[in-house]
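Lab notebook: predicted structure, single chain.

Context: the supervisor wants predicted structures on file for every construct in the current expression panel, including those that have not yet been purified. This is the next one on the list. No modifications to the sequence; it matches the entry in the shared construct table.
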Amino acid sequence: MRYVGWRRRSVIAGLAVVALLAGCSRDPNVRKQKYLESGNRHFQDKKYREAGIQYLNAIQVDPRFAEAHYQLAQCYLKMEIISGAYSELSRTVDLQPNNLKAHVDMGNLLLGGGELKRAQEQAEIVLKQDPKNVEAHILLADALLGLNDLPAAGREIETAIQIAPDRSPTYLHRARIQAAAKQFKPAEESLQKAIQLDPKSIEPLLSTGSFYESQNRWADAVQQYRRAIELQPNEHRTWRALAMAFLAQKKTTEAEQVLVEAKKSLANNPEGYRMLGDLYVGLGDMNRALAEFEALYREHAGELRIKKNYILLLIVHNRLDDASKLNEEILKANAKDVDALIYRGQIFNRQGRAQEAMQALDAALKSEPDNATGHFQLGLAFSQLGNNERAQKEWQEALRLRPSFTDAQRALADVALRKGDMDQLNTLSEQLIRALPSAPQGYIYRSRVLLARKNVAGAEADLKKAIEVAPQNPLGYASLGNLRFTQKQYGEAEKLYDQALERDPKYVDALQSLVAIHIQQGQPAKAAARMSTLIEKDPNYSTYYFLLGEALAAAKDLEKAETALGKAVELDKNNVGAALLLGQVQVARGSPDKAVATFERVIRDNPRDVRSYLVYGGLEEGRGNWQKALELYQKILQVQPDHALAANSVAYVMLEHGGNTDVALSFAQVARRGMPDSPMSADTLAWAYYHKGTYGLAVDLLEDALKRAPQNPTYHYHLGLAYQKANNRARAKEHLERALQINPKYPQAAEIRKALSELAGS
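Prediction complete. Output recorded below exactly as produced.
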């Protein structure tokens, strides 16, 4: 009985415990505290995403839980999600105005964002409550330094030192202020004091090395970085600093050797063994970068960052199937992985699958709305769909989120270049040069501005600068070669293209330009021989066969050209240029039906590449099949509603074959907006006005067209008819007769003679 009683009491006690635990689990204070503690454990283990989720859970239980907001801000800082960190810090100080650490953190974020006055305000809030807060004095000193109030900055940092004279980092801030005031000897003394106070820390050594770099004391800088490596050989930043010092001196080989050593010394540190591959990426040597990350992936298949870097390089090299396979593995493990969703969008963008790209990118941005890369790729998707206005907005948003985002700057620069907006292009080129002074693209964009402004010497200087800052990048050589090409300095241009190809044997722009030079000089056989030599070395590269076909077509060897172009398309079904030239060669050989089959196939494989519809439409229009031509031109406008050439073609076909004049006029206006300087768009719009009976506008446009193309018989014919309708018989007769003089066999010659007869009889 005693045993049973004991047992009953135990059961009752157990039930009481269960009830108590259940009550605790429902208690919001207990729940939020558990989430906070779990987040803190993840944070200590450097699992910042997992920690962030737990802090968010705590906030969901209690939105006014200031400690969780503050810790979430720390996670965002670690993950470099700056806008999220600032938002959470703002919420923290709203809920807990006396959280001085949060005020200081906010101030440092504002400082980093250039909001100097607001950073100063945060420091002053802290110092009002705690006049001896060293971090606040340092923050205030840094803000005043940014505001160029060096005396006040100096006073603040001296106050911080008086409060805590044995604190090494404070002397580093003092050195910055002294260097800004050009007090270089005192700055060096402050740095040495920081080293003395904390001889086991690498931070003073790294700061001292950076100071010596600013003084061009390269040997001293290298010595400091080597001391830092000796002190902490497992810290990747020390190796990186040494490599960057060599790079700054243009000692690329030495920088590479340092990172090869780092890879061995940091075999267990992903940040360390990735640096060599990152160097190759930074140098623009994508072939070596791919090889490096391919090797790293084999060694560290479980390292997610390595896998992601490898995927990115596969995308860059257009190995989309390989990239997609690896990327889908990531998404299978975590369907919400933002990086992988963006990679999926990138892959779809490169495959011309813009709608699918948008779905992936929308999912990524739903999780991380401030992801600049996601916005950039979404802009590319909109661009493919012909929504250029939305594309531009996405690129601008990407640049707002990451002001140094050079891909977005380049995309916007390309927009400005297409629009001929030289002021905007100049602004963007300057931004690129500031962001990447050792990259060629900014100088090349600026050279385009200078050329447009007739400053050839300035443009040439910028192109030479592009080569100087990136001697291993083919872009500068090819761009200067293009300038020499336009100047008809073909020998010099050829040398520059050869130099570009020495850096990258498959650099398409240089290859195409070399073929163009030989054809321009009447030497297509020389171009063909060059491509044949390259094919012997690499028989599976589609572009070589494409350019061989182009050279053979120029040499009128159409049979061999067709064979070469067929091989190019066989090797790469996405080589649209080769497929279109193949179709044109087939037409020239008297096989239009084969050409139609070629065009149908290239459209099936590349449905969003509008070039195919345009060339195919031209073939059908030439064969008199205007309804099919109209259908093809209209498909272009489904892909790119503002495609000026397609709009012009639709309008002209409709006007020539009894289409709706009002609809034709609207398309002609689209074409004119897109090609405001084109005589062709002027003629089409004039022809639409003629059909509408607005002869004065037609005359003005046709006069403008003839200024630009005075030997075009169609423009004379149309202007003659417009003058006839405007009752200006003399001018009508003049232009109609001129059309026949230019081309006695003009297709509308009978209509011209009829009009002249009417003028003579009236």
